[in-house]
Design goal:
Layout (H helix, E strand, L loop, with lengths): L6 H7 L5 H11 L2 E5 L5 E6 L25 H12 L7 E6 L5 E10 L6 E7 L1 H37 L3 E6 L5 E4 L1 H7 L3 H4 L10 H17 L5 E4 L5 E11 L2 E10 L11 H8 L3 E5 L5 E4 L1 H7 L22 H12 L1 E10 L5 E11 L5 E8 L9 H14 L7 H23 L4 H8 L3 H10 L8
Helix pairs in contact: 11-12, 12-13, 13-14
Length: 464
């Protein structure tokens, strides 16, 4: 029976190889290969075709340790020491400093060339892996932001749930056992909310009421909507049960609202479109021509931190959207001119201090009751490829580029300069929270010069 030879023995069996063959093998195995002399100086290098050769030429003649970033210098020293002892070094990840200001991540293994020879460092570049790691970090940060946002949303939900005057009961759709109930539901059903949890919701109901309630819930489960069921409360009062099906962690739940049968319905909306907008996860708000809120769905109220719709109605939308007197006015002007506005980028300032980037699409509804309907989508959770201000500036420059051939070069350069100058002035104002004196210091200009530029660009508010 033949025995398995070691790798070294196998290589020896191939016979002696010339220097050219060894060089070709190194090139085939490496993205980056460095020949380093006994003093640690790079004497020759090989780069794969897709690597930046122009930015790495200055490595030649320099100590290897001087071509890497500060945190990688110790790793280079350790590799040279291990190779100098006659052993192939352990693989280590180092970052090279490039002439253009970037970095090139490489995983190296160093091998000594004979007793008196130098060292060959064989490396695999890690740019793709580094990009994936950066993407992972961004995703983790986005998840953490979502986690804390959900915590804040849950806190607001609990507060609204407890103080709401309408009786609300959360019921397991499989067992009909109460999962949660607010104080108003406890008063309607004659028991403390904690005493209701775990009980089947049909308690205290007459047999006819139980059958009607079960039929109502089954209709909601099957079709998503049904006529409300009538239920007698603890004090003999009658309640209309309105059910909605939702899911939590994959489990179906019924959200039951108990509305007094004697009370007039709060909203008469038989329209499917209205019901869909009310249930939309994106904010939807209707304003008059001046931007005052006429109606809003729950998603918008949650977005701006307002507990009930009545507190938002009559308020100016600019109270929460963008900069007061700027973004909303520009949006409404676009709607008046074109009838619609699409993907208008701005920000929402919530009552509870939560801010988020949003995109707004709006359309005007003509007729005797003219109004503007706006869909507001939170885009803050998207993983961005760069700062939003930079993207806005890029889009603006691209728009100017489309004017080439229609406008003279001198006018294009002037408009581009004004655009960039205005962008950085607005960035400085945002950074200093609109403190003009601090903004002038940040920009390195005098206050008088900044005030002149502000008047030129229409920023005439007084310094805070």
């Amino acid at each position: 029976m033949s025995t398995v030879k070691t790798f070294d023995a196998r290589v020896s069996a191939l016979g002696s190889a010339d220097h050219q063959a060894i060089a070709e093998m190194v090139k085939a195995a490496a993205d980056v290969a460095l020949v380093v002399d006994n003093d640690g100086v790079v004497r020759d290098l090989f780069l794969a075709a897709d690597l930046p050769a122009e930015e790495t030429r200055e490595w030649l003649g320099q100590p290897w340790i001087d071509t890497v970033t500060s945190e990688s210098r110790r790793k280079v020293e350790e590799m040279l020491a291990e190779a100098g002892a006659g052993h192939a070094s352990r693989r280590r990840h180092v970052n090279h400093s490039l002439a253009g200001g970037g970095e090139l991540p490489v995983a190296y293994t160093a091998v000594r060339l004979g007793p008196q020879g130098g060292v060959v460092a064989i490396g695999r570049e890690l740019r793709a892996i580094s990009a994936l790691q950066q993407r992972l970090v961004e995703a983790q940060q986005a998840m953490e932001r979502d986690y804390w946002r959900l915590r804040h949303v849950e806190t607001r939900y609990r507060l609204l749930f407890q103080v709401a005057s309408e009786a609300v009961v959360l019921v397991d759709a499989q067992t009909l056992k109460v999962v949660d109930a607010n104080p108003a539901a406890g008063r309607a059903l004659g028991a403390a909310p904690r005493e209701l949890v775990g009980r089947v919701f049909e308690f205290g109901a007459a047999p006819a009421d139980r059958d009607a309630l079960r039929q109502h819930l089954e209709s909601v489960r099957a079709g998503g909507e049904a006529e409300p069921a009538r239920l007698a409360g603890a004090d003999g009062a009658e309640w209309d049960v309105h059910a909605a099906l939702l899911r939590q962690d994959g489990a179906p739940l019924f959200l039951l609202r108990l509305v007094s049968a004697d009370a007039a319905p709060a909203r008469a909306d038989g329209s499917r479109v209205v019901r869909a907008l009310l249930a939309s996860p994106d904010g939807f708000v209707v304003t008059d021509a001046q931007g005052r809120v006429l109606a809003a769905n729950p998603a918008f109220l949650e977005m701006v931190g307002v507990p009930v719709e009545a507190r938002a109605v009559g308020e100016s939308l600019s109270r929460w959207i963008g900069r007061p007197g700027a973004d909303v006015d520009a949006l409404l002007a676009t709607v008046r001119e074109h009838g619609v506005a699409r993907l208008f980028s701005t920000a929402v300032r919530g009552e509870l201090g939560f801010n988020s980037e949003v995109e707004i699409s709006a359309a005007a509804a003509t007729g005797p009751d003219a109004c503007v309907g706006m869909t507001i989508r939170d885009v803050g959770r998207r993983l961005s490829s760069g700062p939003s201000g930079a993207r806005d500036l890029t889009r603006a420059v691209e728009h100017l580029t489309q004017l080439v051939g229609k406008v003279s070069l001198r006018d294009l350069v002037r408009d581009t300069t004004d655009l960039v100058e205005r962008h950085f002035i607005e960035a400085a104002l945002e950074l200093t929270q609109d403190n003009r004196s601090s903004a002038a210091e940040v920009l390195g200009v005098s206050r008088q010069s900044l005030y002149v530029k502000l008047r030129r660009y229409g920023h005439e508010q007084k310094d805070r």
